[in-house]
């Protein structure tokens, strides 16, 4: 009944909207009057007054679901939306060709179609209500726009419902209000069906999973497991005694509980015990594992509350266990006062367990990363230590060899120096002898000159007369003068000779030092090559890097 009411409101709205639109256009509709299912004419002109009635009657045949004729949005398998000029020039009238049946397309191809436009949404074979959600969202189905009926755009096809809804929401030139309200009605109808318009390409391969928010609940903290049926027997005072703390811990030692507690009342042990686990996610998982163990063997909370069996054949008591909740702990503390009451909190499961597990997972990943990193560094360290040991041994051998070579070189140098000193001493003695012989010759030469002068002086006898004496004196004076001039020339030439000799010695010494310097450089280069030949590879790399940095 509600659906029929909604359909009636929808059809009434479409009729009123079309009438308002035609009034705005001056009462000149876009469809011909008097066209029915049997007419074959192609005239598009006609009277004015029956047109609105006929269009309204045609629109009344358009519905999302009709109980009388099962009408449907007309769906024909054709090419996508096409507004070629040739088709626009054709008159608006009924068509004789019957469409190919496909999916939700119209069936029963008869000799004609319903009154109104041949492409309008009238007298279809099935209603939108009878289409499944998959058929509605099928991108291969093609639709006409009912708001464009009888006007421009009425011949357009829309492949899938999404382009039709987009057209209704974005139409901006003709019948804007009608298109917007059509889009709202389509959305409302689809929402009532429990679906929505799915864009093309998204009809398949999409799923709805869990809700975005994570489900959370409160848990007892620290984690605890209730152990039931732990009392044993009554003592002489009719008080119940039961399992002790250490006994309970040892009995469940494989679950890493940290503490055990028992509940006592006026009659002694109440048969209700607790295993308390550490306040971590690991402790909760251990408690949950114990809880699952009890559940797997059928001795969990449900079994205790509905079908408990206290004794096995033979007299052994059957223990029951399950995760503790707040109500269990209230019962546990029923007869406890003050400090004897069990302390606990109600905490968020997401905060205390899930987040801790995630953090533990992240920490574990980081731990694995750092373990691998440390192992890699240890391997590198071992390799470096091994390489360092090999290089150190080679260096020790090289240093020992260098020490021996240096010692031998020093010994050879000392021998060479001694030999050179001996040769130097010998040549110095020889040169000194030459100097002494030269000095002796010069002294003899001077003595010879002196003796010659004395001879000249003494060779002249006493003159017999003054004339002879004067002439002889002149000869002696001339001889002395000549001798002095010769000695002066000798001294000058001797100085020149000494200067030339000294220059030759200086040149010779310069050549000697240059040759000695060249020999030293040559020796240094050869020594460097020798050292590079026997230098370890790592030291070569370091030396090369240092040299490059210095040059830069």
UniProtKB/TrEMBL annotation:
<feature type="compositionally biased region" description="Gly residues">
    <location>
        <begin position="104"/>
        <end position="113"/>
    </location>
</feature>
<dbReference type="GO" id="GO:0051607">
    <property type="term" value="P:defense response to virus"/>
</dbReference>
<feature type="domain" description="XS">
    <location>
        <begin position="216"/>
        <end position="329"/>
    </location>
</feature>
<dbReference type="Pfam" id="PF03470">
    <property type="entry name" value="zf-XS"/>
</dbReference>
<feature type="region of interest" description="Disordered">
    <location>
        <begin position="438"/>
        <end position="471"/>
    </location>
</feature>
<keyword id="KW-0175">Coiled coil</keyword>
<dbReference type="Pfam" id="PF03468">
    <property type="entry name" value="XS"/>
</dbReference>
<feature type="domain" description="Zinc finger-XS">
    <location>
        <begin position="145"/>
        <end position="183"/>
    </location>
</feature>
<dbReference type="InterPro" id="IPR005380">
    <property type="entry name" value="XS_domain"/>
</dbReference>
<protein>
    <recommendedName>
        <fullName>XS domain-containing protein</fullName>
    </recommendedName>
</protein>
<dbReference type="InterPro" id="IPR044287">
    <property type="entry name" value="SGS3"/>
</dbReference>
<feature type="compositionally biased region" description="Basic and acidic residues">
    <location>
        <begin position="438"/>
        <end position="457"/>
    </location>
</feature>
<feature type="region of interest" description="Disordered">
    <location>
        <begin position="26"/>
        <end position="119"/>
    </location>
</feature>
<comment type="similarity">
    <text>Belongs to the SGS3 family.</text>
</comment>
<dbReference type="InterPro" id="IPR038588">
    <property type="entry name" value="XS_domain_sf"/>
</dbReference>
<keyword id="KW-0943">RNA-mediated gene silencing</keyword>
<dbReference type="InterPro" id="IPR005381">
    <property type="entry name" value="Znf-XS_domain"/>
</dbReference>
<feature type="compositionally biased region" description="Polar residues">
    <location>
        <begin position="54"/>
        <end position="68"/>
    </location>
</feature>
<dbReference type="GO" id="GO:0031047">
    <property type="term" value="P:regulatory ncRNA-mediated gene silencing"/>
</dbReference>
């Amino acid at each position: 009944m509600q659906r029929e009411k909604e359909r009636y409101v929808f059809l009434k709205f479409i009729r009123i909207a079309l009438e308002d639109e035609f009034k705005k256009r001056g009462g000149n509709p876009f469809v011909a009057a008097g066209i029915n299912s049997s007419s074959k004419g192609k005239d598009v002109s006609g009277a004015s007054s029956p047109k609105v009635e006929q269009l309204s009657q045609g629109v009344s045949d358009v519905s999302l679901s009709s109980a009388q004729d099962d009408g449907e949005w007309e769906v024909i398998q054709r090419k996508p939306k096409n507004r070629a000029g040739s088709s626009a020039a054709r008159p608006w009238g009924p068509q004789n060709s019957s469409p190919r049946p496909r999916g939700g397309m119209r069936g029963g191809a008869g000799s004609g179609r319903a009154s109104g436009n041949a492409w309008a949404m009238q007298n279809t074979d099935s209603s939108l209500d009878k289409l499944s959600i998959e058929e509605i969202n099928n991108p291969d189905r093609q639709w006409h726009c009912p708001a464009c009926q009888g006007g421009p755009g009425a011949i357009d096809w829309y492949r899938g419902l999404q382009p039709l809804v987009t057209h209704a929401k974005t139409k901006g030139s003709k019948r804007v209000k009608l298109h917007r309200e059509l889009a709202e009605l389509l959305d409302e109808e689809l929402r009532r069906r429990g679906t929505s318009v799915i864009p093309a390409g998204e009809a398949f391969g999409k799923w709805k999973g869990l809700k975005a928010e994570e489900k959370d609940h409160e848990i007892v903290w620290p984690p605890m497991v209730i152990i039931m049926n732990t009392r044993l027997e009554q003592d002489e005072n009719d008080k119940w005694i039961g399992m002790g703390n250490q006994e309970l811990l040892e009995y469940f030692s494989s679950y890493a509980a940290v503490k055990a507690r028992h509940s006592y009342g006026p009659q002694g042990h109440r048969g209700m015990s607790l295993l308390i686990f550490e306040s971590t996610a690991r402790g909760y998982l251990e408690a949950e594992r114990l809880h699952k163990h009890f559940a797997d063997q059928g001795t969990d909370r449900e079994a205790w509350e509905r079908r408990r069996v206290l004794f096995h054949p033979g007299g052994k008591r059957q223990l029951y266990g399950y995760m503790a909740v707040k109500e269990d702990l209230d019962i546990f503390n029923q007869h406890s006062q003050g400090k004897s009451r069990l302390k606990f909190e109600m905490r968020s499961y997401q905060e205390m367990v899930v987040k801790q597990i995630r953090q533990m997972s992240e920490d574990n990943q980081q731990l694995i990363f750092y373990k691998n990193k440390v192992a890699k560094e240890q391997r590198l360290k071992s390799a470096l230590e091994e390489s360092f040991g090999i290089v150190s041994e080679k260096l020790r051998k090289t240093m020992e060899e260098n020490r021996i070579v240096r010692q031998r070189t020093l010994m050879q140098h000392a021998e060479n120096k001694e030999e050179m000193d001996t040769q130097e001493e010998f040549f110095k003695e020889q040169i000194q002898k030459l100097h002494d012989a030269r000095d002796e010759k010069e002294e003899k030469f001077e003595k010879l000159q002196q003796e010659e002068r004395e001879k000249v002086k003494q060779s002249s006898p006493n003159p017999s007369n003054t004339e002879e004496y004067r002439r002889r004196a002149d000869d002696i004076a001339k001889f002395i003068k000549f001798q002095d001039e010769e000695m002066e020339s000798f001294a000058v030439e001797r100085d020149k000779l000494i200067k030339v000799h000294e220059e030759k010695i200086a040149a010779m010494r310069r050549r000697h030092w240059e040759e000695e310097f060249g020999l030293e450089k040559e020796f240094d280069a050869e020594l460097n090559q020798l050292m590079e030949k026997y230098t370890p590879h790592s030291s070569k790399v370091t030396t090369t890097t240092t040299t490059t940095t210095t040059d830069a």
